[in-house]
Amino acid sequence: MIRNLDMRSSLLSLVILIAGLFIWQVTTYVPDTGPIGVELSQAEEDALLANNMLPEDIEFYASQGVEFAQLEQIASLNLSRDMIEAAGGIRALGISVPDQDSAPAPGSLFPSPTLVGKELWATVTDPFYVNGTNDMGYGIQMGYSLLRVVIGYALAALVAIPLGFLIGMSPMVYKALDPFIQVLKPISPLAWMPIALFTIGDSELSSLFVIFICSLWPMLTNTAFGVANVRADWVNVARTHELSALRTAVTVILPAAAPTIITGMRISIGIAWLVIVAAEMLVGGTGIGYVVWNEWNGLRLDRMIVAILLIGVVGMLLDAAFARLQRAVEYAE
Amino acid sequence: MAKPFLSIERLTQQFPDGAGGTLTVFENSTFGVEKGEFVCILGHSGCGKSTIMNILAGLAEPTSGVVKMDGKHVSGPSLDRGVVFQNYSLLPWLSALKNVTFGVKARYPGWSKDKVEAHAKEYLAMVGLDGEVINRKPSQLSGGMRQRVSIARAFANQPKLLLLDEPFGALDALTRGTIQDELIKVWSQTEQTVFMITHDIDEAILLADRILLMTNGPFARVAESVEITIPRPRNRTEIVEHPNYYAIRNHLVQFLGQRSKELAGQQSHGDDQSPESVVIDKTATPPEAQSEPATLRAVSNE
Questions:
Q1: Residue B293 above 50 pLDDT?
Q2: Is residue B181 part of a domain?
Q3: ipTM of this predicted complex?
């Protein structure tokens, strides 16, 4: 049969996916109840007719799914269908009726996989539309988030890697900075947000700062650890070859510590991506985190799920990129 | 008397013993190595051989005493003193060739890339490495091949003094034999001055012009300097037939087995601790003095 491990694991993944989608579909399935019309009893119809409501109006609104109690309201207002439509439809009267196009369908607020799939398709086929500040393609929103992450992360790398080198190479600096690092490191990135908002003022810069601060620590500690633990033999090789401190750092310590440094960078990008979503929910305006919040507020759960799914996919791609980088600098002893 | 090429003068090394006192590894150790000479140093673990090696390499500072090479004070590591470490110390992210060019580039910064590469390849070929092998990473090489690369790297730098720290310690006997032969070959082509640490008596006799014997520590010292009176070129299967071979070997075994302990722990009281020169040459003595039963017994007991 199928002997190849990759094949078997892919098959298993597929089975799990299908099972998951099936369970999702079943639990969110709303049976087709035919036309959404409401069957009125003879007594009810008579009551409406007694209220001077036209028979064709009764039939029309009942077929639209308007309940007897609401029909009674309409009848009591003494409005004909033409007048209602002229006023902007039945909803303009404040009477809520089910809408064929509206999602979710009554019975299940949670969107089914088919609904999400449709929305996902619409999103990936048209990712860059702009219909206003609150209605932009997810590609654009994702771009905002990625840009913030890249800027905050790059600034963190610029600080963390040289500083990590210094800490790793100098036990004195290590001991001096260690207490600060130990205290600052466990602080939740979002806890910095109020301080950032107050001191920096600008919300855009504040979210960059939060990305910066959360990306800093794994890179800093991993670089310091990697540099401090470069095998003494390799450093001795550099010393016996009379390499300058800079050349030793570049040609011996950097490649020796690179796998550890990249591991720190990989952890950092993961955290930065987690934090940007939360930060954008707080700060608002643009970004995929804001999209999730916005769709939630609009109760477009299907679009929200699509956004969440895309966050996962982009996070995976970021991680995969660093995994590739990691393989490139890895060495076997 | 003229100073030797490499002169170790009143070298003392002390470490804190962890209980508030000091541990003297060796003190006032004084000896020399001539230019072009191949000297092996033999002694038990912990007698301070590696410490001497690190001081000569400039990787460690002695508590007191000086090392002079070519009349100049040695301090800190230098390209003039190449080191072959026991664990090869190849940079694992570089190929064998790149490991050698790494050293050559440091030694001759002005050389063109092609020249550096050609030079590195030449020395790799001397230790029997050529073709596709030199583009492999150290992890893809056997222990013997790695040590060959390490030796090539050291020789390619043409240092004035080559320091070998138990270079064959981690290799199996057969590989060790092959690389010893290659080492002799390279050495005879380059006329390097070599200072080598070893645990292996036969290896020392095969390679060295002179063997320095160290007593056990603490207060270790280089007690004897035994001249290897076996002509070169030497061959491992032929030297055992030489009349001096077992005489020298027995002397060394005796020293390491017994006298290194008896002589241990003698403090210098401020005197220079120079080795006593020992020359064992059976070829100069009457033939009946050869192959005494006692000599053979000592060998079979070993």
A1: no
A2: no
A3: 0.82
